[in-house]
Amino acid sequence: MKGFLIILIGLVTSTMVSQETITLQECYDLATVNYPLAKQSILLEAQNQLEQEVVSAAKLPQLSFDAQATYQSDVIEVPIPNSSIEPLNKDQYRATLSVNQLIYNGGATEASLNVKSSQLKTKQKQVEVNLYQLKQHINQLYFSILLAQETDLLLQSKQTLLEVKLSEVISGIKYGVLLPASDKVLEVELIKINQQLKDVESNKATLIETLSSIIGQQLDASTTFQNTLAEIITTTELTRPELDLFQLKKDEIESNEALIAKQNSPKLLGFATGGYGNPGLNMLDNSFQTFYTVGVKLNWNVFDWNSNKKQRESLSITKDIIDTETETFKLNTNTELNQQYNDIEKIEAFVISDLEIINLRKEVLKSADSQLKNGVITSSAYITELTDLYEDENTLIKHKIQLQLAKANYNVIKGQP
């Protein structure tokens, strides 16, 4: 009992932690499990199990029951004068129970089971591909939330600085160093910042709600989204699930080819029929009788006008089509990777220039701050310089987040996450 309580407390604790902080990889993993489409994999497996049981039933004895009652206008008579053989009744009755047992069919049943297994793997891989394609959408939401998170921190920093500056300006007005109403400009800017903060918080809440619905995990404004720096991998081959799907489609075709090849194999069946009727097997006995027959039957389609061969040739062409689809996918994906890599290099250059601009802006603002304290410039001129600095810092944040998004998308396109 004590061990159970420890495990329960651990589970509760882990759930609480997952609600307070989350990573991009955790979002991927949660979407793979909780997105409605993920349920299809289990459903497909259950469906395939039933289909395999239906195919396997061909190995079991097949029972059939027939019953009939007829009246016919004429019956067979023995053309012998003064014969004691009575003619058959025109009303006749028969009930039979038949058993058919498959003895040999050239391995067609096993081939059918292999086809069902191949179909299951293909369908489940298609579900995996569809879930994988969610990752870029998750990237867009996740890094948009990060951007809102960083923008909110930047606005709060600007707000704090302006509140300090407002106190200094009010003091300057009181001692006649600054012109009256200089504080009003700062107060207006603080109101604007409050509006911006509310706008950012509203957008962030919408993004979080959308992401929560995709990953099936309750997130809110208190959740911290970790900004783990991603590094792109440029040396390995593509590892996209689509490539596995193409191969599984070819495997499925090959299993169908094997099945078709066995369809013309000889089929040997054993059968037995027991019945009760009037007349029975003895047509001269005009009474109700029991009867039975047993035997074996061979069925072999010797010539099918090359239908079987043409079906296999058609499947072979389908495999060639899949090969062209695979090559097309690789070409398009590598092209997309090159474009994404160029975007990454471009944004990295932007980040470097952003840092240079911000350093210069800080020097300008430092000078403006000194001039404002000495009454050389107005509050409006100071606000202009301060706004320019924060706009450039906001641009830097956007470029950094865009860089992380581009790297994450690159890895998704590559098939690395």
TrEMBL record:
* Parts of the chain that traverse the membrane: none
What compartments host this protein? Cell outer membrane
| Presence of keyword Transmembrane | yes
Supply the SUPFAM superfamilies for this chain. Outer membrane efflux proteins (OEP)
UniProt-recorded Gene Ontology molecular function terms = efflux transmembrane transporter activity; porin activity
Give Gene Ontology CC terms: cell outer membrane; efflux pump complex
Keywords for the protein's UniProt record, in alphabetical order: Cell outer membrane, Membrane, Transmembrane, Transmembrane beta strand
Q: What is this protein called?
A: TolC family protein
Native organism: Gelidibacter salicanalis
Q: What is the lineage of its organism?
A: Bacteria, Pseudomonadati, Bacteroidota, Flavobacteriia, Flavobacteriales
